[in-house]
TrEMBL record:
This is Carboxylesterase. Keywords: Hydrolase. Signal peptide: none annotated. Residues 16-220 form the Phospholipase/carboxylesterase/thioesterase domain. Belongs to the AB hydrolase superfamily. AB hydrolase 2 family. SUPFAM superfamilies: alpha/beta-Hydrolases. It comes from the Bacteria.
Length: 222
């Protein structure tokens, strides 16, 4: 078992009964979404432990081999071509280890949400669709389903009960919205319940999205 990833933790109240493991995008780190906790409307929700892991560093091909935090290598601007399957699966194992730690700390899988932005969104889906237990939800921000041709054969039966929240920017120049729509349609065809929103933004977040995240959290954790 590899060492657990470094994480930043924010607890909304003592003795949390919910965990949200939130993964950053390429070149960012766990600090990226920490400020968002205070922007979310969490009124009425139980105590939550937000866990923000740091991906390991690696040379990223598309960035001329520059070493940065990355969940997997990106070999081609067309994200569906020559995917780094080994890297995706290695990071999947690291995310699974974080899920296992939350369970060891007393939070059941059914109260654990995986969340992520961009590459972190890809890891949310890579891990969550294959996790052998129903999770509380998958929060998928500005990303896509990686290894899409393998999902039907590898997804767990339990994951079909995991609600999915998927959002994307209409003007995203990093991950075109067409890729996200294709991912949504794949998930829907496989029988997943997907709540979808898109916004007039680029590869980022907006206030309407933050409001929708808060509302969705209340729906799946209520």
């Amino acid at each position: 078992m590899s060492e657990l990833l470094e994480t930043i933790e924010v607890v909304t109240a003592p003795n949390p009964t919910v965990a949200i493991i939130w993964m950053h995008g390429l070149g960012a780190d766990g600090n990226d979404f920490v400020p968002l906790v205070n922007e979310l409307d969490l009124a009425g929700l139980p105590a939550i432990r937000f866990v923000f892991p740091n991906a390991n560093t690696m040379p990223v091909t598309i960035n001329n081999g520059y070493v940065m935090r990355s969940w997997y290598d990106i070999v081609h601007a067309d994200l569906g071509r020559r995917e780094d399957e080994a890297g995706l699966r290695a990071s999947q194992a690291q995310v699974e280890a974080l899920i296992a730690r939350e369970k060891a700390r007393g939070i059941p899988a059914s109260r654990i949400i995986l969340a992520g932005f961009s590459q972190g969104c890809a890891m949310t889906l890579q891990t969550g669709l294959r996790h052998p237990e129903k999770l509380a939800g998958l929060m998928c921000l500005s990303g896509y389903v990686p290894l899409a041709d393998k999902v039907a054969g590898e997804r767990s039966e339990a994951s079909l009960g995991t609600p999915i929240f998927q959002v994307h920017g209409q003007h995203d120049g990093v991950i075109p919205i067409a890729r996200a729509v294709a991912s949504r349609d794949l998930l829907t065809a496989l029988g997943y319940q997907v709540e979808w929103h898109d916004y007039p933004m680029q590869h980022s977040l907006c206030q309407e999205e933050i409001d929708h995240i808060g509302a969705w959290l209340k729906k799946v954790l209520g």
